Amino acid sequence: xxxxxxxxxxxxxxxxxxxxxxxxxxxxxxxxxxxxxxxxxxxxxxxxxxxxxxxxxxxxxxxxxxxxxxxxxxxxxxxxxxxxxxxxxxxxxxxxxxxxxxxxxxxxxxxxxxxxxxxxxxxxxxxxxxxxxxxxxxxxxxxxxxxxxxxxxxxxxxxxxxxxxxxxxxxxxxxxxxxxxxxxxxxxxxxxxxxxxxxxxxxxxxxxxxxxxxxxxxxxxxxxxxxxxxxxxxxxxxxxxxxxxxxxxxxxxxxxxxxxxxxxxxxxxxxxxxxxxxxxxxxxxxxxxxxxxxxxxxxxxxxxxxxxxxxxxxxxxxxxxxx
Length: 323
Known about the structure:
CATH class of the largest domain: Alpha Beta
Strand content: 5-15%
Number of domains: 2
CATH architecture of the largest domain: Alpha-Beta Complex
Helix content: 40-55%
Structural class: alpha/beta
Distance between the termini: 25 Å
Largest sheet: 7 strands, mixed
Number of strands: 7
Number of helices: 10
Radius of gyration: 27 Å
CATH topology of the largest domain: Spore Coat Polysaccharide Biosynthesis Protein SpsA, Chain A
């Protein structure tokens, strides 16, 4: 199989006929002009628990065309779950994801396919260079979000959350998309050892039917998910390195302060100088708090190490070649 197009959708019954028609027109021509051969492709629709007639359309098309495949969730689980199941089902050497709302242009598929097929990239992310969304509702927040993502992940993409992406088959089979981590698939790929990540400016269109399924809360959730990914990538298999470090520092600093206050009081008392009782000083209680929190952090790191050592994937590594 040359190509799999994976489309996660939720209540997009009005967009699906036009989207599929445009995909068929694009894939009805050779993707590689040098060979002139028509691509062997499949389109995998993942219905994320739609309540409209989206599944009726997918089911009818699948009955008529074996290249159209469908997965239907019993309820709405989210885009990450839909992509995960779509990736498991996809069998193409190149996998392209796109949204079902007609904001992604299927005419971009050949160029994205070639960037993966020629072996120069593991993953190519679309870049909505000229967005058609509202300036304050999506445009400016998207720029802030992407700038933060670039700073944290080190991946120089202008639009990390663009739904239009192309992957080498090995990428999607070696990453796990869960929760709301679909926003950071390039980072997941990088952590799995796929470093050839590029981007391509793509045409972005206004939504033609319906309304967006994502609210402003996605920016807050996206920020928290980014921190989660960064933390897990750095300390997921070595929690003691962070909890133990900060716990030890707090314990030592708190202990030094408490000891200094006690010795100071003893010195002043032995020399007949006026002194304050140690328990009358707020700094003493702050030092005790630091000692207690330091012990808790250290124990949290120790428990994290025990859990990590007993995890089934503690020795799960991404292998490129085996002979």
